[in-house]
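Usage example:
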Amino acid sequence: MKIAVISCIHGNIKALNEVLRDIDRNTCDKIYCLGDLVGYGLYPNEVVETISALAIPTVQGCWDEDIVEGLNACECSYPSLLAERRGRLAHEWTDRQMLPENRDFLAQLPHTLKDNNLCFVHGSPLSNHEYLLPQIDSFTALERVLSSGADILFCGHTHVPYVRSLASGNLQVRLTEPQRQEHLSFAAPLKRIVNVGSVGEPRHGRPNATYAIYDTQTDAIVLREIEYDYQSVCAEIIEVGLPPIFAWRLARGLEFAEKADDPTHICQR
Amino acid sequence: MWAILSGIEGNLAAYEAVLQDIYHPSHAVEALYILGDMVGVRKESEALLQRLRFSESEQLQPNICLGWWEEQCLILHGVGKTGEPTELVDLYGRDILKPLWNAVSRESVEWLRGLDFGFVELDVLMIHGSSISVSEALTPETPPWLMLDRIQRMQVNQLFCGRSGRMFEYFVQEGSLVDSLLTLDERQTHTVMSPQKRVIGVGNVGREPGQASYTLYSPYSNKVEFKIVMY
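Running the assembly step on the lines above writes:
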C-alpha cells in the first residue's frame, strides 16, 4: 500500500490541488494530513473543505489550534518582534475569513493518529509546538520515535522535509541501588522520522510544495517536490493587502523574511 | 558536600533526624537542597513549613523547590497550573481533599507559589520530578532513551530527583547509534556516540515510618553517597 503524507498547507489551495494531482498520478491508496491547514494563505476555508470532503485523516496543527483557541493558544516562537507582529496579522486575517463549520472541523482534529506501526503528528509526540529539526540530537530524535510507540514517526511543523533513519541504537547503563548494582544493556530497532515538509509554505529554499510517500510493501520512503504556479499566489497575497513580505518569502521558500533582532526572543503568547 | 533530600511529606520527626545526621561534622555539608514534597496530609505539614520558611538561625538555610504535593496544594487553592486536582483524586480519592486543604495554611500556600521549579548548579539539575513535569517519576525502570532526553533538555550532565521516593544511581555509561539523514538534496550518515549522563534518585525523608533516606553529593569528587537514618 502507498501512503501519501502532507502537511502545513496554510491556506494555499493552488499548491494543495497540485499535490493532490501528484498523489493521484502516483496511485497512492491513502492520504494523511499533519495539520496547519490554515494561516498565512488566502484560502483557509477552501483548504479545510477539500480536506474534509476527501475525508483525509488529519491531526491538528499549531495554527489550527491557534484559530480554534484564540491567539493566546500559540506557543510558537518568532525570531523577532517584527515577525511576531506579521504573524499576528496573518492570524487575524485568517480568523476573519474562517466559516464557523470549518472552525468546528479544526476543533475536532486529534493531536495524534496511528496506523499500525506508523504515527502521525504535527510537531512531535509531546507537543504541537516542538520542532523536530533535522539537526536535533540523535538520541533525542530516537527518544521521540520510541515515545510514539511507532517504527516511523511522520511529522511536519518545520516546513523542511527529510527522512532520518536511526539504526543500531544501543546504551549501556550501570544501575546502583543501596543493596545492589547491575549492568544493563539496551538496544533499539531501526526507527525513522519523516518530516514531510510543507505543501503551502515551504522553507527548504525553493517555492515548490513537498510531501512524502511511504510504500508499506517495500518499506521505502520518497520525498516528493512539486512545482506549481506560486507566482500567481504571491500576486494574490499582495492584491489582498497582506504584508508583501509573505509573498517574498513564499517565492523563495524561506522561513523568515528578516534576520532576527533577538534570536532568543520567545513569542509572548 | 551537598545534602539533597525530598519527600518529607510533613514528617517533622524524620526531618529532624535527617538534619541531625546532615550536621554531623564528618559530612562537611555546605549546602542543603530540598527537592519538593515538604508537605503531605500530615497535620505537622504547616509546622514543617514554618520551620523551613523561618530558618535564618539554622546552620544551613535550605534551597527549596516545588514538588508534587505542593503543586496539588496550589491547585486546591485555585492558584495551580490546572483548575481541578484530577491527579490527586485519581491517586488518592476525594477523601484526601479536606485533609490536604487543612494541612497547609493560605499564607503558606502563597509562600509555596514563589518556589523555584528546580536548580541548576554547575552541571547538575536538581528537581522534584523531571525536566518536563513535577509529576513525572524517573525510576530505575525508566528507559535510558527517556533518561537521556530529560537530562539533555536542560544541558546538564546530572539530574537529581525525588518524585519516585527511591534511592538509585542510573549512569548511562556509553552507547552509540547510526544516524542517516536524507533531504531533497543530499544524504549523510554518521555514527554518534552517547554522552555519559547520570540520574540520581535521592530517596525520601518522610514516607516510611522510622526510616528516612537522603543523598550526599560532592561537587568536587562527583561522588554520591546514599544515607539511611533510623529514627
